[in-house]
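4.2 Preliminary Data

To establish feasibility before requesting continued support, the project team ran the inverse folding procedure on a target of 147 residues. The structure was first converted into the token representation described in Section 3, and no sequence information of any kind was made available to the design step. The complete token record follows.
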């Protein structure tokens, strides 16, 4: 399945990567972020900007950090982390070219977590996608009114 996904060319590119780090506390999370070479902090406590222009959204997780599935990084920055406690059981070890092994979540689990995150969002992220959906709805409504 990964080969199928990697061979597809998508209409929209992304310059960001999403990651979750399993850490016991926010102090450890800060040390992880500052230890990433080529990354600089942004105004958001979970986002880092890479010197190449890309960015990484990195969320910390532990049962202590997200009791009842809610992660509060700041009073106004709250994430629904429902299901992340089970993610560690659904990873595979991937060997990088350097020989280092890292745990990576399986695609179906990642998709489920993204659906939870998307359902929890207050604002739509993809304005282009929103416009395409509106245009498609408008076109289908016009076609339906002609029938």
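Position-by-position output of the design step:
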């Amino acid at each position: 399945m990964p080969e199928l996904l990697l061979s597809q060319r998508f209409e929209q590119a992304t310059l960001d990567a999403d990651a979750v780090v399993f850490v016991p506390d926010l102090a450890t999370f800060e040390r992880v972020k500052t230890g990433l070479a080529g990354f600089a902090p942004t105004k958001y406590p979970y986002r880092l900007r890479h010197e190449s222009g890309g960015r990484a959204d990195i969320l910390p997780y532990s049962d202590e950090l997200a009791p009842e599935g809610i992660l509060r990084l700041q009073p106004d920055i709250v994430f629904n982390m429902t299901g992340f406690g089970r993610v560690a059981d659904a990873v595979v070890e991937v060997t990088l070219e350097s020989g280092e092994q890292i745990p990576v979540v399986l695609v179906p689990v990642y998709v489920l977590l993204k659906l939870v995150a998307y359902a929890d969002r207050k604002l739509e992220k993809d304005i282009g996608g929103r416009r395409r959906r509106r245009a498609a709805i408008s076109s289908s409504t016009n076609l339906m009114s002609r029938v």
